[in-house]
């Protein structure tokens, strides 16, 4: 999955905030998929808040404020019900923290 691989590069810091993604053509060549597949992958990353598109300029890794500039505290209250939902939510929070460079506690 193209979006998953790009997401992983962002989380690992291989693609940093402000970095421009390769062009659709370059991504098409690299992943050997159609241009529409690349567009869908980028749109998914945009909806997830990881990438922003600038018309006429390209797609960029979204710039996040770091934990240091925000105090670095996150609270999460979860009821005992729906454990699978909680695990999915926690995974999303952890991913967001890694992207935003919240390091303490993870």
Structural features:
mainly alpha; 2 domains; 106 residues; Arc Repressor Mutant, subunit A
| Average predicted confidence as pLDDT | 82
CATH superfamily of the largest domain: Winged helix-like DNA-binding domain superfamily/Winged helix DNA-binding domain
User: What shape does the CA trace take?
Assistant: elongated
So, CATH architecture of the largest domain?
Answer: Orthogonal Bundle
Structural class: mainly alpha
Intertermini distance: 26 Å
Number of separate strands: 2
What order do the SSEs take from the amino end to the carboxyl end, as H and E? HHHEEHH
Read across the widest sheet, the strand sequence of neighbours is 1-2
What does this structure look like?
With 106 residues, this protein is mainly alpha-helical. It folds into 2 domains: 2-61, Arc Repressor Mutant, subunit A; 67-99. It contains 5 helices and 2 strands; from the N terminus they run H-H-H-E-E-H-H. Strands 1-2 form a two-stranded antiparallel ribbon. A hairpin with a 3-residue loop joins strand 1 and strand 2 (58-61). It is elongated and about 45 Å long. The protein starts with a helix and ends in a 7-residue tail after the last helix. The mean pLDDT is 82.
Chart the SSEs and their pairings.
Layout lengths: L1 H11 L11 H8 L3 H13 L3 E4 L3 E4 L5 H4 L12 H17 L7
Antiparallel strand pairs: 1-2
């Amino acid at each position: 999955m193209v979006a998953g691989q790009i997401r992983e590069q962002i989380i690992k810091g291989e693609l940093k905030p402000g970095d421009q993604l390769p062009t659709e053509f370059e991504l098409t060549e690299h992943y050997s998929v159609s241009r529409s597949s690349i567009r869908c992958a980028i749109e998914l990353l945009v909806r997830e808040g990881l990438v922003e598109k600038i018309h006429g300029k390209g797609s960029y890794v979204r710039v996040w404020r770091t934990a240091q500039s925000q105090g670095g505290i996150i609270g999460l209250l979860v009821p005992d019900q729906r454990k699978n939902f909680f695990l999915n939510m926690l995974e999303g929070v952890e991913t967001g923290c890694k992207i935003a460079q919240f390091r303490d506690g993870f």
